[in-house]
Amino acid sequence: MWLCQRRRTPLGDISSLGERLAVLRKAAGLSQNDLADRLEISRSSYQYYERNERDLPASLLLKLCQIFDDDAHRILTGGPSPLVLNRIEEIASLVEERLEDLDIDISTQARWRVISKVLKDSFRLRPAAAQSADSHEIDSLLRMIR
Question: Carries keyword DNA-binding (predicted)?
Fold first, then answer.
């Protein structure tokens, strides 16, 4: 879902497991309550893990790997999440498609600025709304850069 040439959104730059959990959760479009429900724990218990106030048990790590379709190493140590990489790839493909459709030629740097902006904005939207917003936002950004 997220990488192209590519710039990665590295979890390795995030120093704590709790912060990585928050990034993965938000990338998946889940609230703390949603993720806690999927883990079959209370929201307040989940919050302890995001705040690094409790060690994450192996049983929950395994569930997180399934929920995020990621491996334990990446969750524990950082590195690019397949979810994020796939999303970057998806957005990059949309940008390329729109550039071709609109017959616009821009620099690689400008392309990455558009991809980065759409990526950041997509984290703020619920997953269902994010895809429909992408094309409109990409068109708008490309017209501004032109």
Answer: yes
